[in-house]
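User: Last request for today: this protein with adenosine-5'-diphosphate, please.
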Amino acid sequence: MTLNVSDCGGGSEAAALAWSRIAAKLRSRLAPVIFQQWFANIVPVDVEEQELHLGVSDDFFADYLTEHYGDMLRQALADIDGIADFRLTGGFGLPEDEPPVLQAAPEAPAAARREGQGPGRNRHSFANFVIGEENRYAYSAARKTAEEPGIYNPLFIYGSSGTGKTHLLLAVAHEIQEGNPGAKVKYATCEEILNSYVDSLRNDRQSEFRASLREADVLLVDDVHHLGSKNALQEEFFNTFNTLYARNRQIILTSDRQPCEVKGLEARLVSRFESGVTTEITAPGFETRLAILKQQQQQQLPKLDEQILVFIATNITANVRRLKGALLRLVAYASGLGCKITMEIAEKVLAKLIEEENAAKMVSVETIQQQVARHFELHVSDLLSDKRPRNIAEPRMVAMYLSRKLTNCSFPEIGAAFGKNHATIMNAMKKVPEICERNEQMRRSVALIERQLKR
Ligand code: ADP
Ligand code: MG
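Assistant: Here's the final one, the structure of the complex with adenosine-5'-diphosphate:
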């Protein structure tokens, strides 16, 4: 049977339809591990002038796929009327960045319900989650919630990007759904909810919008920090929250920061969000990073040497998504060239990623000044002034100390940023550890600010 994609709606819909057909064919022809590695994360983007546009994580993958699987792709699309060729481009998320599953948000795009992502094929499971010091508590809370929904309510998981929040959220969702197939488990990102809300306003269908959220037995909302400053949506969300909560329906939320740190989030929502269990996931430490790489390698070929895994774990530090991306890139390189990955190759292939990583780690002196001022409830101008009282002079030294510690700036450069000479900065480098030694409060403050800056 042929499929004519020009019969169905817009370009993106046609692309999704065509891709589901092509993917099914490829899946039947390829070993599961290969399909998973190369095709599972392709995003159908558009059909234009008979050309199917497919998106992958980066140009490297696009080139690799075109070179190695181009003919197979062309064969697979041959009997789809309305499509003559395909085009692959990078820039569509990192390899592991697939859209969520289960019941998509009200009126979520069709692409969010991609083929083959039913609960049975869940990559975001508890079993696939590597437990480390940084996520242990969040993991246990998520597990407990999956086993006994309604006890930790709401469960609020926060942490910076790529630390596994969505993974845990989906793991809970799947586990509950599997144990109770009739349950209405609703997952949505905050942005999807915002879009549905805006649509509902436009089409005068607010009651449907409300009902779609409030009928949920379990509501999982990802990235609620996006609620900040969206007042009308906050009002809606507040009411939905209360309705579900009153019925003892489980609510799970994720965010990139604590409720009280979300700018423009109404106090009443902050207090609702904090009323259950709030748990943080911090950036994975070296052991966790290495364990994640090893776990990933179980499903990959070829296997890389331990020292290569150590190299990746040492250099890609803040974000598991990037960590997995780096690994996949090397695996792809090795399988593409049929060669063994040496340290030299690894360094070359990952050079750009590592450079980005290092650049992202650098904070500016200005940011440090702002963070220190905020912490001590001062103005940046106080830090730049000559005021002598201890409650100003000590924070000023802390800002200087952290500037030297966390940036690549020289003493004279930091001096200039504070309107002081380099000797003042050197003095601060000596003094701050001394102050911390005798003042526990200060030691904690410095550690906290440093952690916040490194996020
Ligand atoms: P976040 O939602 O915090 O930005 P994700 O949950 O999307 O992060 O995680 C990014 C990627 O890293 C996903 O592919 C996820 O499966 C993976 N990941 C994160 N933490 C872990 C972990 N502890 N074990 C295994 N995979 C992880
Ligand atoms: Mg996420």
